[in-house]
Hints:
This protein is mainly alpha-helical. The protein has one domain (about 5-205). It is about 80% helix and about 0% strand. It has helices at about 5-30, 35-60, 65-70, 75-105, 115-120, 120-130, 135-140, 145-180, 185-205. The longest helix has about 35 residues, at about 145-180. The two termini are about 35 Å apart.
Amino acid sequence: MSTELLITSVLLGIGLAMDAFSVSVANGLADSGMKAGRMFSIAGTFAGFQFMMPMIGWLLVTEAARLFTWFSPLIPWIALVLLLIIGGGLLKDGIEELRASKAGGDVAEDKEPSDAAKLGFGALMMQGVATSIDALSVGFTTAAYNTMQALVSSLIIGVVTLFICLAGLRIGRRLGELLAGRASILGGLILIGIGLEIWIKGVFF
C-alpha cells in the first residue's frame, strides 16, 4: 500500500466522519449511561456505512455515472429529511421530559433513558445513511483505483470513522451527565443543525 493512498484515505476518512462525529456526540448526550458495547455498536454502524458508500460509488462509477448526476442534487435533501425526523423526535421527547420533570419534581438519577434516547435500530440506520450518503461521491473520485486499492481505501475510511465516532460518543456522554434532562433537547437540536448544514452546503455551495 502506497503512502499516498494511506494519507489520502485517512484524510478522506476524517473529512467524511465529521457529520457522524457530531451525530455521535448527540447520541451520547441523549444517553449519558450508554455502555461500552452500545458505543461500539453505534460507532461500528457509522463506520460500516462509511466503508460501504465509497465502495458502492466505486463499483457503479461507470454504469451509474449518468444516474449519479441526476441523483447528486437529492443527497442534501435526503440527509436533511432523515435528520429532521430523528432530531425532531428527540427534541419533542426531550421537551416532554423537561415538562414532566418540572411538573413532578426532580427526575430520579437512575431513570432509564427515553425511547428516543435509546436509539432504536431503525433510527440508527437512518443516521448511518444520512451521515454517509455523501460518501458515495468518494467512489467516483477513486475511479482510477484497482479493486484492492478501492477496498483498502474504503476500509481505512471506515476505521477512521469508528475511532472518531467513539470519541464523539464519549464526549457526548460526559456532557450528558452534566446537562441531565436537557441533554435530549440539545441532542435533537444538534441533529437538526447537522441536517441543515448538509442541506445548505449541498444546495448553495
